[in-house]
Hints:
Radius of gyration: 18 Å
Number of helices: 11
Largest sheet: 4 strands, parallel
Strand order of the largest sheet: 2-1-6-7
CATH architecture of the largest domain: 2-Layer Sandwich
Number of domains: 2
Shape: globular
Strand content: 25-35%
CATH class of the largest domain: Alpha Beta
Helix content: 40-55%
Amino acid sequence: xxxxxxxxxxxxxxxxxxxxxxxxxxxxxxxxxxxxxxxxxxxxxxxxxxxxxxxxxxxxxxxxxxxxxxxxxxxxxxxxxxxxxxxxxxxxxxxxxxxxxxxxxxxxxxxxxxxxxxxxxxxxxxxxxxxxxxxxxxxxxxxxxxxxxxxxxxxxxxxxxxxxxxxxxxxxxxxxxxxxxxxxxxxxxxxxxxxxxxxxxxxxxxxxxxxxxxxxxxxxxxxxxxxxxxxxxxxxxxxxxxxxxxxxxxxxxxxxxxxxxxxxxxxxxxxxxxxxxxxx
Length: 280
């Protein structure tokens, strides 16, 4: 049995998509009256330019059921069994549409609601590819990755709250206070939705330092196969500091850097950074 892994474009796997032969279904990003395909004909800088010019966030749209049927169909026609990974169902209708499209293929397409986003979603895709190389069947892979979903640490720290405010995720007062007093909330995925509880204070470097220390304390046991440092066009010095801090604090065999795509960037803004991995 030949297995084809696919994901929507919010998985933010960057160059690792080609390395693991992962098919990507792009979400749409809408700037004014123009629609673009995430990762195809739009880049994060387009988002920054649009927000600066208009003071508005771009809108996003999931692929239609028909889009998913066409996407899955080309792999099924090649004799492959498809395992598709979606951004959390609580964040997008992409999962619901993929599930409906999969019904057409009678057991040839499995859809996983990752209950994550960005490289938290990508971690499950990469783990599935590892399992396939070990000889696991499609059914076994789906069962294992579904069980791993609660163990995926999907978290990040935004530099400023402007984008979160424009997206209705924080109040104007919270945005002004955070930006003025250098307050950086820790945004985490819990059961498929974003929550903010911990708050860090000071420069982004200081906050990232404390954040990584807190991750090590919270997750003393973890899958050391890989870790993602994912950011939305963050300052190179901050990214390098995070890499060195992670290397000194954890024992991951791979520490992979990825840059968030246009969909994720449009929700969090420039200089957001997260350290993502699977806990035990």
